[in-house]
Specification:
Helix content is about 35%, strand content about 15%. By secondary structure, it is α/β, with parallel strands linked by helices.
Amino acid sequence: MLYPVTEKNLELAAAAIRNGDLAAFPTETVYGLGGDAFNPSALAKIFEAKARPRFDPLIIHIADITALENIADLSLLNSTAREKVGCLTAALWPGPLTLILPKQSRVPDLATSGLATAAIRFPSHPVAQHLIRLSTGAVAAPSANRFGCLSPTSAEHVAEQLGDKVDIILDGGRSSVGVESTVLDMSAASPCILRPGGVSREQIEAVIGPVTMGNSNTVVTPASPGQLKSHYAPGVPLTVHRREEMIGLKFEASVGYLFFDGASRDAWLEKGTGHHIHPLTRTLSEDGDSIEAAANLFAVLHEMDRLGLSRIRVELAPEGGLGDAINDRLSRAAAK
């Protein structure tokens, strides 16, 4: 089921996509479940494999900036928006940034859930890029997991959740970013972040100026993946807490405690038990590094989900930068 990344196996995966089948592959964010973006039958297989509702649009992945014009109709944007798109792609592609743009009519409605816009990304992972180029040049690839469940940051996570629903799983090791891409709507009157992710708001604003933040609580028809209130959830109930609240929690048997950093964990342990040992605690980053914390988020939650816990209590990350993406995923997981 798991195939090491070799040229032969990349060609096998590319052939599967060209033939209308599915291949799971690594990206810098999470593992993707890929199918030909222009093949409605392949797109239907993606929705079926994930048990994903048809109203939730897919992200189309490219590996060449010239492929953008095959998917997006930039002529439908005003000159200011077109200029900003050019600046964003020059500065932040390849990378964990998805742009919502007016779509070309040739893009199947199934890929966009019937919307007039498409979600498009140019991943930086070399395996993803090579696979996309070898296959069709445009690969629709949501996260390779069951809909609403924890996102996969390793090939093993894909196999656990999707099993034989995938024709081939390329094993490229752990994803380096660990949370999904930031989704930025460039088709709106002003640029709007629909989902925080691997590129921070500050990075985007450094390139194009101020952007707004969408409110997922008012979303009825998603314009991008990851906008539903409940998402990215482990099987175990999860509750989020701010730092001081987390440190003040009393110990509960069979409950797991996930701290943002070692300082919070140690403060909780000293207050509650008087020592620094507890088997059901984990940290996202011992030193409080938000990049490391984001990279570890889903892997640690997968691990804790297997411990037979009754609940997971999680400390929210400091706001700003990748902390916003971490807290977005945790808040949606807690809404299950």
